[in-house]
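Following the same procedure, the fold was encoded as tokens, giving this record:
***
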Amino acid sequence: MQDSSSAASALDPATLGRQLFEASPDCVKLLDGEGRIVAINRCGVAALGADSIDTLRGRLWRSLVPETSHAELDNAMALARAGGIGRFRGAMPNLQGRTRWWEVTISPIDGGLLATSRDITEQVEAEAERERLVAQLRSANERMEDVFRQAPAFMCVFAGPELVFDMVNDRYLQLVGGRDPVGLSLREALPELAGQGFVELLEGVYRSGEPVFGTDVPVMLQRRPGAPLERRFVDQVYMPLRDPDGGISGILVHGIDVTERKLAEIALFESRERFQKIVSQAATGVVQMDTEGRITLANQRYCDMIGHSESELLGTSVLDVTAAGSVPVTVEAIRRLAGGEQGVMIDKEYVRRDGTVMPATSSVNALRGPSGEFQGLVAIVVDTTEKRRTEEQLRAGEERYRTLFESVDQGFCILEMIFDEDERPVDYRFLEMNRMFEVHTGLVGGAGKTAREMVPTLDSFWFETYGRVAQTGEPVRFESEAPAMERWFDVYATRLGGPGSRRVALLFSDITSRKESEATLRKLASDLAEADRRKTEFLATLAHELRNPLAPIRSGLGVMRLKGDSPAAVARVREMMERQVGHMVRLIDDLLDIARISGGKLELKKERADLRSLLSSAVETSLPLVESGRHALTVDLPETEVPVEADVTRIAQVVANLLNNAAKYTPPGGRIGLALRVEEDHALVSVADNGIGIPPDQLVSVFEMFSQVGQHTERSQGGLGIGLSLVRRLVHMHGGEVSAASGGPGTGSVFTVRLPLASGVQAGGGAASAFERDGAGGEGVRILVVDDNVDAAVTLSMILDACGYTTQVAHDGAHAVELAAAFRPQVAFLDIGMPGMDGYQTARAMRRVEGLEHIALVALTGWGADSDRQQSSEAGFDHHLTKPVQLDVVQDLLAKLAA
């Protein structure tokens, strides 16, 4: 710890000032009144380059300052002596010759001056460097402005997104006609650019920051006030300009006006095009060669003369196609032209591709450049054997003409028109014709003969048409029929020769087959329309035929509701409803049969059978309809067996359809005859009636789908017009034929079915019934009815109950299997299309139940195709019935099972 005297010494102002004086980083000097150095701090001694303070003490400070700064020093010291503060700056060397820049401040103190010098050398040097850089930048800007103004390319600078002109050079002013656009937007300065895409392109560059380059860009400018727009061509670049932050601040546009060059190129191109066209279309050969005689251009005529293509000639020497004897004169001509002559004429011989020699005269001229330098030559080549060449060409042309004349597959002839005194065409004479003339016309030896001699009944159309061609010179193309020749022709006729010529050339084809095909197509279209009409009528008839039975059924249900307690009324209604339901079933069965046959799904179950029994079955089926019409039916069958291989059901169906058809279209009390006879290896079944008959034009179409003869609804018993179509298809499937015959309306008709007789005998056998297997009888038989349609299942169960059978009902497969295990039925009627477990699965499940291995399973379904029957058989069903099933069918089946 310092004592009090030390503390007082540390706080002494003189001591503190001395310490501050020495600690200052500046050069601090105490001067007396005359400017002599009294004291100087350590930094000052070092700055002045002195060894010690003694070297400096007592010296005039002025002696240490360069003479160039004396005036400033004197002024500053005088200001300080006067009580102010003097300042100046300058470069001052120290005692060692090292120069530094100083900023000097002089202030008065008691009896003298205090001078503080601060080293500002680095500041001065930095300011000097900045000034130098500013001067360089200014100089560079001036140079750039000079370059911008004097550049050979046009240049301009746009500022901002509004594309305001900021700078333009002289070339740009020249391009736009001297208009100064600076300060104006592009749209204001050059309004004619609207619609040319330039403004939009520049705006795109400003938005994207991507440069755009263009070559030979056309632009329309109004370079003089009131003048029309002038087209210029430019090569240009749109370059985005960026500010220090990288943002787009403007666009630099620079480019070159290449209008003169472009126009010169266009003119040169057009000139070359004209030259090429002239050369290519020249009637004489034209060939161009370089200084060495190599071919650089050859027109088509020259190629034709020499026999080479242009591609083969280009680059080859003209000597390669020059005959050996003409090589010296050709070489001499090239030498003379290269030596300065403008043109020479030489006679020489060319060698064609095929080795033959062509004499020719060549007019050869030199091609020279702007300075007259020899650049090549061009020769105009003319065949000097004109007469011989002409004769050869005439002979060759005649041969080509004759070859073409005879080789075309169309008829060709030249005829001369014959006019009467009033200049009306009345005939024409055949002068010549090709070989196909006879093929297309059927006329032989026509040369020199007139048309009326060849075809006396030819109509005047042909004379008038060809006469008009000869008189007007206008060619015609037409198609027309020549009834006298029973042919159709497609003809092109044109006059040969100029006005006054009466010769006409014909190029024609016999298009009779095509016309017949067109007629066939029209008939097919008509047939399709007729088929569509029949389909429409069929749908209408189907709706009618389905409504007909439904109406009495609905009425019958009403009667049963009203008179359910009257057994007689219910019986009559039941009989009526059974008839109507039977009618609907027959309609649906016919439709299904047609669909199965059309889809190839109907399979015949052929067996050997006596055709007589099949006809008897058909008579039983149709007898109710025959009797309802009070018709007399006669049946003529042979006494001996008539064996056939047939599906007995389908053949019976065929004959029944024919009998039903006869009953429908025969007036009440008519006669219907069914006959069977054997003719060689065929059986002939005929159904004849004395009904309404068939018009002759419908004898074939009567077997088509939806076809019904005439409009005889008052005599019809209903139908869809598909019965006879079904007959024909079923007969064809048996390898037979069916035909219709009639004398016309009101004369009745005869339908004849022709079937092949059986060639062998097939043994048949039956399987034991389900009842026999189970040892069951008829009454008291247990029957299970399974159908998800509750009404259908309950109704069938009620009918079976009424017939004395014991029944149970299930509405799904799982319940049916469970019920069967307990009920032990001998017969089960199963619907196929049930949800969950279907009929097939239910059948298989029942077969697996102990004690039900021999149950009789009957499929009861709306699907009746042969494939459906096959599938039900594979699932274990014994029988297959198609909904809606009639009671007698069910009873017959149960009776067979019980037999």
User: Anything to note?
Assistant: The chain is about 40% helix and 25% strand. The longest strand covers residues 230-242. The CA atoms of residues 494 and 597 lie 59 Å apart.
